[in-house]
Specification:
CATH superfamily of chain C: Cytochrome c oxidase, subunit III, four-helix bundle
Oligomer: heterotrimer
Shape of chain C: elongated
CATH architecture of chain B: Up-down Bundle
Largest sheet of chain C: none
Number of domains of chain B: 1
Structural class of chain C: mainly alpha
CATH architecture of chain C: Up-down Bundle
Strand content of chain B: under 5%
CATH superfamily of chain B: Cytochrome c oxidase-like, subunit I domain
Amino acid sequence: MQSQLPIYPEQASNFAPHVDALMLFITGVCFLFALGITIAIIIFFFKYHRKTPNAVGIPTHEDSRLEAVWMIVPLILAMAMFGWGAVIYVDYRHTPKDTLDIYVIAKQWMWKAQQPNGLKEFNELHVPMGRNVRLVLASEDVIHDFFVPAFRVKMDVVPGHYNTMWFRPTKAGRYHFFCSQYCGTNHALMAGWVTVMEPSDYAAWLSGSSGGEGNSIAAGEKLFAEKACITCHLANGTGRGPSLNGVYGAQVLLADGSTVTADEAYVRESILQPNAKIVARYAPSMPTFQGQLTEEQIIALTAYIKSLQSQPVPAKGFGIAPPTGNK
Amino acid sequence: MSNTPPTPDELPHKHYLNATYGSGIRSWLLTTDHKRIALLYLASVTVFFFIGGVFATMIRIHLLTPRGALVTPETYNKLFTMHGVAMIFFFLIPSIPAVFGNFLIPLMIGAKDLAFPKINLLSWYIYLIGGCFVLYSFGTGGLDTGWTFYTPLSSVYSNSAVTPAVIGIFINGFSSILTGLNFIVTIHTMRAPGMTWFRLPLFVWAHYATSLVMILGTPVVAITLLLAGLERMFHLGFFNPALGGDPILFQHLFWFYSHPAVYIMILPSMGVVSEIIPTFARKPIFGYSFIAGSSIAIAVIGFLVWAHHMFVTGESAYAALTFSFLSYLVAIPSAVKVFNWTSTLYKGSISWDPPMIYALGFIGLFVIGGLTGLFLACLGLDIHIHDTYFVVAHFHYIMVGGAVMGYVGGLHFWWPKITGRLYPRSLSRFAAIILFIGFNLTFFPQFILGYLGMPRRYHTYPPEFQVLNVLSTAGASILALGYLLPMSYLIWSMRYGKVAGPNPWPATGLEWKTDSPPLTENFEVTPEVTWEPYDFKSRPDLGLETGAPLPAPAHGDD
Amino acid sequence: MHRTGELYGQFETLEQQKESATLGMWIFLVTEILFFGGIFLTYAVNRHLYFTAFGVGGNMLDLRLGTINTVVLIASSFTMAMSVWSAQTSQKKWLPIFLVLTLVLGFVFLGIKYVEYKQKFDHHLIPGHAFDLTYRMNHPAPGDDPKELASERKEIEEALATEDPGNPQGGLVALNSHAQLYFSLYFGMTGLHALHMVVGAGLLIWVIKGSLKGRFSASYNTPIEVVGLYWHFIDIVWIYLFALLYLINRHLG
């Protein structure tokens, strides 16, 4: 995540190399001035150290030309810094026309991003590499700021205004984003990850093949362990509950002989009212999680279970109904 | 053979500290003597420096680990807010003007006191009352909005003691305004005969420029905080978008003062350095009129750059370009000062006395702080480093490395005049070096942290930032030593220090023609000024090898 | 405290003392300009944003009383100038008379202000929970002029029709919200001004006492001059307030 050289972040956007180059230029100029002054002071400090206790220094007359020189030369250098910075900034503030638009909402203390197809993410932002991406930023409460160090960009999110920012990711990877305008107690926790994907991966992700927010799957997996689902629903089918590998989207055989499609509604019902549809050959021993999970957590678990579609189904200990055809 | 008058063994018989008018504490609390008022301020700003320092210590300890070692998030947010409020409004802004400006300006211009001595005392009481409100806020739940009070966080969402704090800062603003008013009138109307504008010490020029900023800028932050306070108390909508208000308007109004405020904090310190360098190089300062003019230029241009704090708020690109350009302009006068100070050392007779070490430390740290301002003024860079530790490092280099170092240097320069005593020479130079090293170790890593992307005001941070944070905290412990040492030996010296005599260095200002400590009325006879500032060669009374003929001995022999 | 125009210890000459006092007052007035300036700026920005609501709000101010107050203050500036003249020409009889007249006019101003504020309170125009722009329209009091009420109703209805269409909040809620902003600024600005008037009244009482003891004359009249500067400044601020709050976008009749 961090570059090998620990003094600047990875360069992952179109702006990053320019910002870094400008930084090096300004650093170089400043270093030379600082070095010059320091050397002059050190030399004078030692060379003109008082020789006898009552010695005085030799007055040197005011020199307007010298003053002009050391006003004009720094001014010229300053204008160069200004100009270069202005060019980058104008580019940054001038959003190109062909952008992928993502809506970002900030509120104390989390981020919601809405992708073009309506897909929502929380504290995550997936973007395709090589595309111009425009973020439309809105706040529900106080001023926040969306900052991606690897992109070298940030923009305040001001309540009552819409602010926009744009960038073009240039390197795949996962990069920090931070809230960068103090917004209250958990300002420092209001951070997340920008995931830059190859365009094809992004498209796939966007179309929901993994069932939703990448973050949700991970969260769901975590919950699956935390809520002890994993103690019964062992993947290899030897647990007290059926393995959930491959079950999503399949037909499930119930104890009463009927079958039902294991869709989102079924998963939700199984969590909240486990005795409503018992899987064949299993006892009604699953406890209910009514009142113990938020909607977001149910969504996350569903996403995780969905992600198990591609996992190998064990030979025994599953709830999937045998196919009507051959398998 | 020198003509220096021998240093006396004892303090002068009568001076402002033991003047007998009134009894004991009443004579101090009701004094109108600018020198006593300066000491009242010295005590109070030191208290606030200590309070702000305690908060800083807790912040740095907390940031030793990524998860936060010491306090809860709420408490951390209060710590950095209160650190900022205490340091900025109750230490940095008053410090040099209210302590050294008050003490020295009448002495430097040959006057008996400021134009309005009673208003001077009133300023101190207003400062105390404002301070009480703010301490009350700190003590009853604290303040967690950041010292910048951005709305609607401060006016609507924060659950901390915002209102008393805002009232306290509002009141304290008038202390600043009245001090500035007093200085301007005094410098205009009360200069001794022969003390023309261009014979004024540069310290006075610096305070004149500072006072201009104080009187023009402070009223704006006063009305802004008043509006924000009213909004919070009565649920009005000036800056609250839910009620039709505009949080960006708050920022414009706030920064219109708060940017010039940073020049209030640095100009006096530059004035101190402009006194120390020629004194300890024993020659006139190079480019006097340019240094004087640059103080005024900084004050004026400083009013035109406020929105460089708002480059990423979505303000118009035209505005951003204008403010960036002007921000580069304001850097030039500061550069002029640095070049002139350095040139003054050329062909000087440089002593390595403690004030000189502090002044050179100031130049070193101010140069770094000022140059990093060029990074922040740069629009393309600012979109990356705004609101990161880069900014924190930049302003601490200027405020602490610059202003505080100048303040401590001033303490070391004028301590003999204020107290009549000298302090240990070697220990104080050692303290200066400790300060310099500790400071750099504390704040230089923060530039790197900032460029790496660590935002400011974070109570927790990603683990990859830990090494730099630990370095910074280690430096802070050294820095603390650098402050504790002078506090100790300066207090020690008040009782046990060697008696200084009127002009121990010696220096050329009018203040050094009085006793140490001076009489209450400063001068027995109003002085008449016939010499240029820092002109050692035409001052035989200082007893130096000026090359000027010694006064003829009594017998007429050579 | 000046008893016989004696020299204060820190000054060398009376001339220096007088110069300092007047320069000090001028500088103080400059700070006051910056102080009021901030709230004037806030007013200007919000007026620009919420032109309609501010127009409605402004028309609810009592133009008659505002005009009378303006005349009263201008008259008081005249009597104040006459006080300064009396002091400068050692007219020790006229000085307290003109000063007292100034004070009386100041109190008249404050009294009328009180009446206006009370009116606003009765009409539910104080910002807060009870704020309701339509209160007077919907609850006419017996003494209200029906023509005035009718034009107010028309004004509000027109405003509702033209309120900023981009605003997510609709109609009356938005109008009330923005009008509340207007009245917050109205009370803020006129309240701040009134506070300064009270301070001015205090200063006047101080110099009236001195003038009754015959302390001011051609050779020493700095306090009168300095109080006069302050008073004129307060008057000028009111002129701006009157124009910006009462007169802009005013519908007559």
